[in-house]
Amino acid sequence: MKTKVFDRILFNVYWIICSLLILIFKGVYAQEAEFPFYPNGTYTEAIPSPDGVLGFSLGKKPVNYAEVTLYFKTLAEKSPRVRLVESGETHEHRPLYYLIVSSEENLARLDAIQEDISKLADPRKIKSNNEAQQIIDTSPAVAWLMYSIHGDELSGTDASLQVAYQLAAGTDSATVKLLNDLIVGIDPMQNPDGRERYVAQMQQWAGLLSHSDAQSIQHNGVWPGSRTNHYFFDLNRDWFILAHPESRARVKTILQWNPQIVIDAHEMYNLDTFLFSPSSEPYNPNLNPMIIKWMNVFAADDAKAFDQYGWSYYTRSWAVDYYPGYGSAWPYYVSAVAILYEQAGVDGSLIKRADGTILTFREAVHHQFISSIANLTTASDNRRALLKDFYGMKKEAINSKSDTNVRAFCIEPGKNPARAQRLMERLLMQGIEVEMAEKDFRMKNLRSFWDSKPVTKVLSKGTYIISLLQPLSPLIKAILEFDPRISTSVLQTERETLEKGKGTTLEDVTGWSMLLAYNLEAYTSVDFPSVKKTKVRQLPVLAGAVLNSEQPYGFIIEYQDDGAVHVLLKLFELGYTVRVAKEPFEIEGRFFSRGSLLLRTIENPSMLIEDIQKVAESTGTNIYGVKTALSQKGPDLGGQKFQLLKTPRIAVLTGPAIDMNNFGALWYLLDYELKCPHTILDYSDFDDFDLQKYNVLILPSFDVGPKSYMKIFNENDIKKLKAWISNGGTMIGISNGAAFLADTTTGISQVRIRRQALKDLHLYEKAVQREENRRTSKIDSLAIWEWRGSIINNYIETQQTEINNEIKQTEKMDEKELAEQDKQKRLYKPQGAILHVDLDEKHWMNFGVGEKVPAMVYTSYAFLSRKPVQTPARFSKASQLRLSGVLWPEARMRWEKSAYATREEIGKGQVILFADEPNFRSYFYGTTRLLINSLLLGPGFGTQQAEVW
């Protein structure tokens, strides 16, 4: 009885405390809600505020996509100052909207204003200085406000509603001046799919009490998080890659409106304050100094606005815009002043900070709002100067004064016109002018990303030419140039930071050229090609046809063009029997490279001809019919040099510890680009999976290294994996996934992580040398026919010397000292550098790729391989290793001749490892082809599977 009474007293005390806490938190919200976003503001009563439409006070909780759309549509209906525009659609089919807000007078002549600004954006359209000056004097400037490109960065979108209301309904003189001086574009939600995912998680984990503890799940969400879009892609890295519809819509819109100022509003670590531009060094060499001047002007006014409230902020800190794929960087190269915001995030509720103060969501929204209004005010006050400098930067661009070495880029479609056309499509989307040569032409002083010296070359008809005498020359150089350089002073700071073990100061990759990523035959020229050219306005649809289709022995598809991959996938889908040439051959007067696909008529259904005609047309690929199996050169079509393929049944492992970016890129490749059937498996249920349903299993990279996989897979799971591989499976490990399979404690692969094989480095070095010797060796007839006397003695003496040297070298090694040296060298890992990888052209993993390929590397894991492991892709020697980006001398030596991709036989199956992500950010198409070959050719080429699983 006493216990029950005591329990009831405890319960009542608990309930009173909870009620008091609720009242306290309500008081905090109420106090904040009473504080206006815009003190002393006056508004048109006919225009509803966000609170009036949403039914709750803005900043009380995050708005969702439907609420934002409802409010923007309401403003467009109620306010004569507002126009609502639909610009595109997300992967999950949510329409993308933005608002145009200005005075009624400006909106009445909006088309004329847009046309005038477009003339400033292209000075070639301007007839005289007087015409330019008249536009500058009479036209409003264009300001573009973009919010929340990361789905889990919430406050920006909510602030966009208050900014829209202020401009649509405000009647005070300051707001009216903004409307008269500016055309304001408001993009409220750059990543609707990610935001919806995150808002749903916040609602799911919200309780009766708001959690101010930053470690609470309410402030972190669950894997895969919501920073990314539907395919887990960080859209703030996609501005020039343009893999995703959200990015394509945004770039198209920016180019239509040619803004002079662009705001990119983000959130950051929740215990921080507020950061805004200017950014810190390094600056991209293509950044016009005028942009930096204006960033400082805007920062000074932003600081004054924050100082009025006593808010904390800072500039020139960790944010680095060197990589041109950010929303706060890409606009630089279209001559807009881009400004980054980073507000401490509170995830829609509140956070207790280190100093004991509480930061609420409404405060976070308020900070974003005030910063936006401050920047608009600066733009308004400097309207003429902004337009003048915008025009000046464009004039400088078309004169190409900023670069005296490169005048044009020349890109040969070569044997991969589909990939070249894909690149041109992306460039045209960014407003870049492209021309095409109407005939063959000869050029001197050309440089490719492979050549250390200039070359003279005849380029073929159809070569794409991109002149730098155009308004977007800074953008062209920023995204295409082979090897941008960071200043020595910045490198010195970076080096000191690395040596102290504090990690890199560089925010992103240091190499990114689209030309290297696409692995096309591309050159820079110091001269403008004088050949007759045609301007490319719209890329033609690649025409595919079936040639010589009457009574054929079979059909052949050349495999060097990316279109052939889609042909192969279609043939798998249709159930056809496909073979692949192991060697090059010539038949009926036409040469075909190794990797070419063969369809024997006798092995396939009667519908073969009708089906392949459809396949040729849908993929834009030529398919050749041959009437004989007899080749003029190389293997005959009926022999054993044509490997039978097996339809891949692919599974990809995923789960909370998997690197969502790597997984997302794999998912995007399989689902969106290849449209290849696949299964996504959650590793938490691994024990229950029947792996026999699949013949390919991909282990993506892990967030925190290969040891995480060891926490997932117990001893029985590893036995299960080994048994599946031995029974004919193809296991593919990527980056940290590869490190897990190569780890000595796993016992699956014979490849070794360098840090675990330091004692045997000399053995791997010798194995690499033997590989080199095999490729370059020439027949010594004396050694064959005259093997006697001194020749025998010299050979034996040489072999014994090598053995003795190995023994001495091993004895001198101190394993602890080696480990410490290697640990120190790992501090200087490749900083997102593009490295030279040499390929074994005869290996099936490299079919259709060539003899070398650029690869993105951003990892501390170097891999060692020797027989019986095959190494179809190996990093080049140190002197040739770096193609672009930061590669410290320690990294040159550590990655020299290490393995990029390996393949090894295990029972009837195989393990394939990639040292880093081959399909990095969905645009490294050169190395992606190695991955595609592993997926599509691997089950037939590398395994001995039973016909029925």
Task: Give a verbal description of the structure.
With 949 residues, the chain is an alpha+beta fold. It has four domains: 42-398, Zn peptidases (Aminopeptidase, 3-Layer(aba) Sandwich); 400-536, no CATH class; 546-644; 650-771 and 867-874 and 898-941, Rossmann fold. Helix content is 39%, strand content 18%. It is built from 31 helices and 36 strands. The strands form seven sheets. Strands 25, 26, 27, 28, 30, 31, 33, 34, 35 and 36 form a ten-stranded mixed beta sheet that branches. A seven-stranded mixed beta sheet has the order 1-2-4-3-5-7-6, with helices on both faces. Strands 13-12-15-10-14-11-16 form a seven-stranded antiparallel beta sheet, with helices on one face. β35 and β36 form a beta hairpin. α8 (173-181) packs across α12. Mean pLDDT is 90; it is low at 1-6 and 9-33.
How is this structure best summarized?
With 949 residues, the chain is α+β, with helices and mostly antiparallel strands.
Describe this protein with a few key phrases.
single chain, 949 residues, alpha+beta, Aminopeptidase, 4 domains, ten-stranded mixed sheet, seven-stranded mixed sheet, 31 helices, 36 strands, 39% helix, 18% strand, disordered N terminus
Protein structure class: alpha+beta
Q: Provide the CATH architecture of the largest domain.
A: 3-Layer(aba) Sandwich
Strand content: 15-25%
Please give the alpha-carbon distance between the first and last residues.
67 Å
Main sheet overview: 10 strands, mixed
Per CATH, the class of the largest domain reads: Alpha Beta
CATH fold assignment of the largest domain:
Aminopeptidase
The low-pLDDT segments are 1-6, 9-33
Number of strands: 36
Number of domains: 4
Which superfamily, in CATH terms, is the homologous superfamily of the largest domain? Answer: Zn peptidases
Integer-rounded radius of gyration: 31 Å
Shape: globular
Task: Tell me, rounded to a whole number, the average pLDDT.
Answer: 90
